[in-house]
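FIELD: query
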Amino acid sequence: MVGGVSGIGANWGTQTSHPLPPSTVVQLLKDDGFQKVKLFDAEDGTMSALRNSKIEVMVGIPNDMLLTLATNVKAAEKWVSENVSSYVNDGVNIRFVFC
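FIELD: result
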């Protein structure tokens, strides 16, 4: 344990030539004992597959949205509502947002 953090996690990107179905990836993560996952976007299929999985999720803000979200409060509120709040309310264990 380093700095009070425990558990094992994985990075999960969706930019791949041969993607696995999100439900398969979630099952693999659970079967292999992963308790945390870092996503580089909040893709709906991925987020839906994580619903009620108890896996802790860290969601990334896409680079092309950083300037807009940093300078436009309404855009930032909308992004959080659509990409964080809606999934938390639907059973996804989102713990962090990163950029």
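FIELD: remark
The first strand starts at residue 9 and ends at 12.
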